[in-house]
Amino acid sequence: MSRPTTTASAGASASEQGVPAARSGTEVHAHRWTWQHADRDAPAVSELDLHIRPGEKVLLAGPSGAGKSTLLHGLAGVLHGEDATSSGRLLLNGLSPEEARGLAGLVQQDPESQVVLSRLGDEVAFAAENLAVPREEIWRRVKRCAAAVGLDEYPLERPTAALSGGQKQRLALAGILAMEPGLLLLDEPTANLDPQGVEQIRDAVISAADATGATLVVVEHRLGVWAEHVDTLIVLQPGGGVSRRVPASAVGEDEQLRAELAAMGLWVPGIDPLQQAADVAGAVGDRWLSARSAARIADAADQVDSPRGVDVLHGADSLHRADLLRGEQLAVSRVSPRKSWRRAAAPAPVLSGVDITVRAGEAVGITGRNGAGKSTLLLTLAGLLARHGGTLCASDQLRGEAASSDPHQWSAGELIARIGMVFQEPEHQFVASTVAQELALSARQAVRPGSGEPLFTPEQVEQRVADLLRRLNLEQLSQANPFTLSGGEKRRLSVGTALAAGPSLLLLDEPTFGQDARTFAELIALLREHLDSGGSLCAVTHDEAFLRALNATEHDVGSLSGSGCGADSGAPSSRPAGAQESGEEATGALRAPEAPAVQAQPSAAGEDGGLPMLRGAKDQSWLGRRNALAKLIALVLVTCALVMTIDWVSSAVVILASFLLLPAAGIRISTFLGRIWPFAVGAVVAVWGTAIAGDESGRVLLDLGFTTVSEGSLALGAALGTRAFAIVLPSVIVFSTTDPTDLADSLAQQLRLPSRFVLGALAAMRLLGLLAQHWTTLGHARRARGLGARGGAGGRLRATLSQAFGLLVQAIRMATRLAVTMESRGFGAGPRTWARPAGFTAADAPVILVGAFIAAAAVGAAMAAGAWNFVWT
Amino acid sequence: MTHDSARPAGASVSAPATAARYPQRARTFRWSVSDIVVASTLAVASGVIFWGWNLSYHFVGTLFAFYPPVETLVHGMWLFPAALGALIIRKPGAAIYCEMVAASVSALLGSQWGLTVLSSGFMQGLGAELIFLLFLYRRFTLDVAMLAGAGAGLAGGVTYHWIIPMYAYAPLETAIHIGSFALSGAVIAGLLPWLATRGLAATSVLSPLASRRAHQESAFGVGRVRP
């Protein structure tokens, strides 16, 4: 495994055999280092003394709130001091983290906020550019580092959006390896990944560290993933300091250490968190578990020990357990099966032929490989997506007085009183400003089917809220803003918001993703309680422990025939035939753990080309290959000519020229017409506006009393309308053939606009697709909270506003994480180089000339026709 | 240019103890990476909202067919990124930057005004920016936010009629057109962004930014109100 490490002296001397160039490992020192974030009452890290040897591999653990992430961010040089207080020193090879820029590379938890640019090669090059590495050397490093993490099977042009979560994490690793760092920092890099992705990123990290000799510090809840592969375990304690520093092998041997770690809520190999939680609660009366949930956990633990536990418990009714919800030959898709003006044909389902039944008092686990359509199936079962085919039928018991047996037809209030949905990202479900209001909202929104009467009286609502706050152990936090809770608290609250409406069926999407062992145990206790009271549940999960703890029936959708067909629309054909990524890659899995509305995106964007910038692939037409600035200059010239005058002749010239240019842009006339017809409608509106609001001149054609339409005002309106239409056509042509990355390169390198801002905007543009997915998911989540359509106009407005606000929160959350990613890759702190040169070539001259010619022809024709009507007079 | 290598003051040393008490005085006006990426993301998202709004405006616009000069009562929708960006980032240039980027993105996606949205975006952003400058980037209260929204509308109206003329209205109609724009700006692009900023601050997502305490500030005063 370990290879001889060559010494520093930049990459030039590095080997070309797929091994990242080596720089000896960085030494880390902390001397009484303290950091207190702005507006916090206590320091995140206090008086820390720490020494990590060059090349040492460290697993950093500790209970939540021990400052692990703060320490990693400090080492990565991304902590900032405005309003924060700090003291002591943190040193990398004797330098402060700011001085040691480029020495440390950071990989964070969320794969989505690890990707800055839209193409694989550019992404790997980004950090090296920020460190001003020469261009030729950048591309050498890109190839080497992509190979080192196993991504060299893809072309460098591959859109990053087409990578799975695990691949994105390896891409992030490649990006920091291209900095040739001496210190690799990983902050829960595998928390959002499925088991297969976890091993791949772990192996890539270890082999990179071995190959380069870099020091490694990894923070992780699941100690088993790393313990056998690292040298040292360091345990931080809340309030400051190191409580343990032992060889990592002790995780498997030292019983006292194991017990300590488990008590912190960490996943210790060989320790069942349920048993652990029960023991701890029983022995010491733990402060984080109410006596009631402790008893619940103990129950759950007992039942896991005896596999027949559930049947014993429900012995009486297990024989005639009734079906609650039954799907037969279900076909599901994110994209609505209805036709629309955007789409000629109904989209292919992502998953079809599913037979699934959920019975009263039963737990069902939906499993299967990534991208198989599990989340889509769950949303369909939850009545949030319309089914594409087959039948979905709620039993009379579940349906009650509802008019239809298809949950999708129920009003939001009827739905939540029957089927509760817990989304993978708890924040998607939050709509109120306090925890208590959040719970009360669900209870108030629940209605009796048929009559539409509230299900609970105000007194009952109050009672339910009080009751749930206690069960969720959130009493102390009842007035806190839901978004400010910790990860585990948010997870409990999201389950609570579903339970508050009193559903008998609870659906959950990956409820244990990224959770520590303590939250896991609490969650199991809650769900156990729901099952014991006669409720049912159905969860999409990768988590074996979760299935076992609930004695769930497993329903594997990955093995179904027909699954995955149609999900492939997002994977460009550039994928090599021998792609190895069987599981996560087979569907072009664009799987975003936080925003599961994935498969809808590429097809929606690709079909009508509505959002060209989301495509990620370069336009290959003649115009598409030209320099972006040249196209922009041509566009400015034509636009200026039109803006100077209000007449229909110059506009007509530009409209004609635009249609003549379509072949050069590789745009079919039907596609073009499909995109511009709304603008023609807008032009007609503009004609009317001026016709009645313009100065009266000539014969009056129409007298409305308060205003008139005259010959003069109508002619002026017609000229303005034609001009409005003419202005938009060239920009549609230019922008639909221009790649945002190319445009940004040109703006920064040729126009010399501030590169920090240009690249910031470019990075934000990549988030667009994600924001679109969040928007869709937030919409589903509103309905799952009892808001939205069929709730009256007021309800709809409220749902839309809360959806918009939810999107703002997610946008800023993503942006701040992305900023950390960018800064940890050296962005924004010094001169940079550009991996992609932007400059004019001889082939760009015709672009500008054609633009100038069209502008001149428009002006000339207007003057010749005597229609010239200069605006600034 | 941005290659200024200076780190923000206080990046590596601890902030003075007084910083906590007088946050606005101790602030630097240099944009951090977080400022840039958050502003960009807000602006890009706004650009997409513009794009959707542009499309629906083809129909919304016809609602004013009886008297087109008052159509600007809903044009504040094109102004909100200016105040939203400024209120959240609280650094010079935020209003212009957000409005410009939002306009550019809507142009990239295809807007009915083509490239001219760049000039209107700049002018509208400038209208809001000047108001925040007037208060030296120290006040981000409700009144200032609404003034900024109105400023953006005023500048937008001036652009419509004299800078890049898109209308040929009679004088009275022109005055009504611009006045409605300013009013719309004050509400849609002043009041709403101010409320949104407070809501966001309460969720703690603004913690890396200068507006992190917006929800604790009083609506009109400069002082802070404890929750």
From TrEMBL, chain B:
InterPro entries: ABC_thiamin-permease_prd. The chain crosses the membrane at residues 31-53, 121-137, 144-163, 175-196. Signal peptide: none annotated. Keywords: Membrane, Transmembrane, Transmembrane helix. The keyword Membrane applies. It holds the Pfam family ABC_cobalt. It comes from the Bacteria. The keyword Transmembrane applies. This is ECF transporter S component. It comes from Nesterenkonia massiliensis. The lineage of its organism: Bacteria, Bacillati, Actinomycetota, Actinomycetes, Micrococcales.
